[in-house]
Structure formats: C-alpha cells, structure tokens
Design goal:
Blueprint (H helix, E strand, L loop, with lengths): L1 H9 L27 E4 L3 H4 L11 E4 L2 E6 L15 E6 L6 E4 L2 H9 L9 H13 L2 E6 L2 H12 L15
C-alpha cells in the first residue's frame, strides 16, 4: 500500500523525494531527493491505472518479489532538498475505512525500530533526531480506498484538491 500510495501521489502534483527510505541531512534537517524508482507490484497495477493512465504501457521487470513496474519518484527530477512537514506510516487494508491517527514519539521510535532506521550514536545526533521528531506531526494512516488516502495526505501537506499549496511557506 505504501508504494501504491506514493505512486498515485506523484500523479497529483505531490513532489516525492523517496519511497522506501529517506535520508535527513544533519544540521539542516532537510531531505535530499533519492533517485531510486518506486517499485510497484503487480497487485497494484490496475488500481494505479485511473491515476496514471500511461502506467499500463510500462515494461514489467522480474524481481525476487515477483513482477514489478518502476516509476520515477519525481516528475520534475529536481535536485533540491525538501523540508519535512510530517512523518506518516501508511498501511493499506482491503475494505478498511480510512483512519488517520496522531502518534507519540515513543510509538514512532517503536515503528522506526522495526524498519532498521539509523542515527549516529552520539549525543548531538540523537538530540537532533529527537528534536525533529518532537517538531513534526506524526501520523498513522490506514486506508482501503486510495482516493481517500490521497486526500488525507494532501490535507496534511496543506494542498488543495488541484495540488496547489493553500499556503506558500516552503517546499513540500
């Protein structure tokens, strides 16, 4: 569900910096774009058809996880850094209602711990990381309908349905 949501968001003018992992620059706490494509599994191809019509014509590649189609994370391919505005853990569950819940720092660290996150093991780096987590809104988004998940993400980003920022206060 995470990669499917990420791919659909790219079709709605959301600038995506990465799908599977994100680097955060020490000091500036900005996110550099990662050039790795989104790997969309075959189960999501038909769902993405309405969001990315040209997707059906993309070549499939074989991987250890089965057949996948690759999609660039950025339509603009800009080499600029972004400023994080929220941290969100997403999960698709067939037939579920869309549910957005705020998370506490302990919940986030617990979830990150299962993903293999890494921060330098020194007081300054850990303090900077915890400060970032303290400042950012933190969410868990469970969804069963892709359009509803897109609307939730765009609301958090402060974007209108047309993809334009409701406020002009930085890079999303």
């Amino acid at each position: 569900g995470k990669s499917t949501l990420a791919a659909a968001l790219t079709a709605t003018e959301v600038e995506l910096y990465s799908d599977d992992f994100v680097g955060v620059e020490a000091g500036s706490l900005q996110i550099p774009p990662m050039p790795f494509p989104i790997a969309v599994r075959s189960g999501s191809w038909s769902v993405l058809q309405q969001w990315i019509p040209e997707f059906e014509h993309r070549a499939a590649v074989e991987s250890s996880g089965g057949k996948m189609k690759l999609l660039s994370v950025s339509r603009r391919q800009r080499a600029i850094t972004g400023i994080p505005v929220a941290l969100m853990f997403t999960q698709w569950r067939a037939g579920s209602e869309t549910s957005l819940q705020r998370l506490k720092i302990g919940d986030v660290i617990d979830r990150l711990n299962t993903t293999g996150f890494w921060v330098a093991h020194n007081r300054a780096s850990i303090g900077e990381f915890l400060g970032l987590l303290e400042r950012l809104p933190k969410y868990s988004l469970q969804y069963g309908e892709l359009g509803e998940a897109i609307a939730q993400v765009k609301a958090i980003l402060g974007m209108t349905a047309a993809g334009e920022p409701e406020r002009n206060n930085g890079t999303f």
